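Thread: quick sanity check before group meeting

JM: Hey all, I'm pulling together slides for Thursday and realized we never actually wrote out the predicted structure for the chain we discussed last week. Dropping the sequence here so it's in one place. If anyone has concerns about the input, flag it before I start.
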Amino acid sequence: MWHQRDLTLRPHPRGFHLITREVVSALPELAGVRAGLLHVFIQHTSASLTVSENASPDVRRDFERYFNHAVPDGWERFEHTLEGDDDMAAHIKTSVLGAGLSLPVRDGRLALGTWQGIYLCEHRDHGGARRLVLTLLGEER
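JM (edit): ok, ran it. Output follows.
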């Protein structure tokens, strides 16, 4: 069976935000899947998705510090600057982290590790609402 749904996330400030609950809540059909895959795709070029440690807020802050250091806003060699100092840096961060995740589903739940969660990585100061496409493929229970 297949299910596909759009999910619009409220605007988040720049940073790394756990969205696992929002994703799971948007797909009640998940509970009926014995084995399958959930693909999560973000329809933006200045925000990304990743899976990482979901317990300590320090991890989220350290991610933000690292990426801001590695790809600083307003680097003087960027040519694409029409949408502000944070725009090109956001595109690069999105390309590094990625726009999609494929997650295993087992017995009606995401088969994530004990300390894993889905992150929205917001790379703009004012990114706005973000749209996700959730595609669930699986064998029913």
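AS: nice. The helical segments are 20-25, 57-70, 87-97. The CA atoms of residues 90 and 123 lie 5 Å apart.
JM: adding both to the slides.
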